[in-house]
Amino acid sequence: MSGTLAKIAEIEAEMARTQKNKATAHHLGLLKARLAKLRRELITPKGGGGGGPGEGFDVAKTGDARIGFVGFPSVGKSTLLSNLAGVYSEVAAYEFTTLTTVPGVIRYKGAKIQLLDLPGIIEGAKDGKGRGRQVIAVARTCNLILIVLDVLKPLGHKKIIENELEGFGIRLNSKPPNIGYKKKDKGGINLTATCPQSELDTETVKSILAEYKIHNADVTLRSDATADDLIDVVEGNRVYIPCIYVLNKIDQISIEELDIIYKVPHCVPISAHHRWNFDDLLERIWDYLRLVRIYTKPKGQLPDYTSPVVLPDSRTTVEDFCMKIHKNLIKEFKYALVWGSSVKHNPQKVGKDHILEDEDVIQIVKK
């Protein structure tokens, strides 16, 4: 393990002392690829007997979405969690006795949202130290990450945490790079760029791919991409997660400073202790989670508005809705009646491919 760490440190040092210009771009690209490979080794250890079942850090996924809280010790994560879960929670703490992380589930707009404290990500977890690895595995399954920062020293912390998460292949508030990549059996490396490239040329692409022992592939650059983007696509194990920076302890700063903070993108200032601005934070969380609520209507009864079926906005067909309730439901499915913004008239008869929108009401008619 330490060997890998030493190698990583060595490459990082070399990158730091290499000037960035056209002549060295090629070399830097190579170093970045090597670094990405070493990092991956740390996250997924090589074979071995495995460490038995992990130290109980697998968290049962409950609810419709999962939010991970990351932050240095003593920035008020726990206070924020217990106050959020305390104010809005319906779930008693005794449901989770064996798990090390789950602090609570909140109900917001009918959706059950699981709040997870991700401890010890900061202290060198991506170097495989400590409990890091299991925490990362859980972090990668979150639908949203909240980085809790102390408003008095935000920037230093923010950088460190972002670097750590980047190192695990978690990309915050970004979209997957627009790069087409296809391995082949023969024919060498074909590079097509649909727009001018400031960083990648055929040489650099070839050397990065060679580092992965890939000598035959089609690469299509559809946007001005960086070496890091290409490495992300080749590694293929990156997850793209939205992120909100929560600036805590605003009771310690002036109104003028608060106004400045409000203009920073993805930032929500709060005071966990005084419970200030929680509604704003929850609203922002809801926006970033992008969930769609569907209400069910049993035949001859009024719709049940208290417990919606919640779907991610990427998968909201009637079929997805059926699968969420029970996988056998789709076999008996005849058609559905839908009321709401996704249909032209209320109710409308739709098939299983119909795409539902937020707050639609649905009634399933079986065969």
Automatic annotation (TrEMBL):
UniProt keyword annotations, A-Z: Cytoplasm, GTP-binding, Hydrolase, Magnesium, Metal-binding, Nucleotide-binding, Nucleus
GO CC annotation: cytoplasm; nucleus
Domain of life from the UniProt record: Eukaryota
NCBIfam families, alphabetized: small_GTP
GO BP terms in the entry: positive regulation of microtubule polymerization
Record flagged with keyword Nucleotide-binding: yes
Official protein name in the record: Developmentally-regulated GTP-binding protein 1
Record-linked SUPFAM superfamilies: P-loop containing nucleoside triphosphate hydrolases (SSF52540), TGS-like (SSF81271)
Subcellular location(s) of the protein: Cytoplasm; Nucleus
Record-annotated TGS domain positions: 290-366
OBG-type G domain residues: 65-290
Pfam families listed in its UniProt record: MMR_HSR1 (PF01926), MMR_HSR1_Xtn (PF16897), TGS (PF02824)
GO molecular function, one term: metal ion binding
